[in-house]
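[worker-b] picked up task from shared queue
[worker-b] task type: protein-ligand structure
[worker-b] ligand name resolved to zinc ion; SMILES cross-checked against name lookup, match
[worker-b] sequence length check passed
[worker-b] input payload:
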Amino acid sequence: MSTATHNAEALAQKLADSGLRSTPQREVVYEVLLKKRDHPTADEVFARVKSGLPTISLATVYNCLETLVQCDLVRAVNFERGPTRYCPNLRPHAHFHDEQTGKTHDIDLPSELLEKVSSVLPAGYDAKSVEIIFRGKATKAAH
Amino acid sequence: MSTATHNAEALAQKLADSGLRSTPQREVVYEVLLKKRDHPTADEVFARVKSGLPTISLATVYNCLETLVQCDLVRAVNFERGPTRYCPNLRPHAHFHDEQTGKTHDIDLPSELLEKVSSVLPAGYDAKSVEIIFRGKATKAAH
DNA sequence: TTGCACCTTAGAACCATTCCAATTTGTTGA
DNA sequence: TCAACAAATTGGAATGGTTCTAAGGTGCAA
Ligand SMILES: [Mn+2]
Ligand SMILES: [Mn+2]
Ligand SMILES: [Zn+2]
Ligand SMILES: [Zn+2]
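[worker-b] inference finished, payload out:
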């Protein structure tokens, strides 16, 4: 059994779990993501997919990507679609995006933790900044 | 000495450090950010600033915000301006954006570290996901 | 077979951001 | 003092990633 077939079946299973169909477009988009793992943009996926499926549309690529993300097969790296937000808090802190209210809260970070996080970088990676973003629900929301 | 005056002076100092001028627009934009720390968007800053400076333009608000970010007085929370990128790697990992090449690299994370990061959330914050993004230069870049 | 929900498609619309050319403002040193 | 130059602001147009919409296609289920 080829890898492509195997992937397609795993995909079909995951889609079925969510009550969704497997389609040629969804299969090819997923194959493209698995084949070259360089975090492509939707446009890049579109370009790659067209060689195997020349009639696919960009709208479908966006639809498929969203479907794959919802099935937990793919992760969207910068998935904040809204406008940039600005923060004058200069202490080391993370951000918590409340998906219900749309509000963004500061979460103080012990600088010791930031160091620990940065220490996971292999040699050769020189980070100028680290950004930590939580997403979820704030039940007893702070201010 | 009023708080506003003090802030304006601190701002002027920081701007001078970068060889930049203090202007009424920059002062008011900074005041607005300090006054209500709710991570406003550029549009929201624009709306708030207009009451004190009715002739300011949206382009200037963007310019001022960028200036404040560059002076390290303000942080841009979702400062990835480019298109969303997609990743089929399902293991827990962070992302490293190489600012030179524009490439995004996966950085494996010990799940123990992810737990430690999540444990900084105060009671009442229920996170569904955590995203960690490094930015910098990869000298001996992996693939 | 027919109905119907799901899916894809092309192109228009949207909207945050950036660009541009013109003007205003501030600084410098003749 | 003022001319020259640089820095900053302004309004509007352009950009570009993403989403929307309306129309057509596909495949399962009764
Ligand atoms: Mn945002
Ligand atoms: Mn991106
Ligand atoms: Zn913040
Ligand atoms: Zn990744």
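[worker-b] attaching auto-annotations
[worker-b] Residues A 87, 89, 93, 95, 106; B 39 surround zinc ion (ligand 3) (CB under 6 Å).
[worker-b] releasing lock
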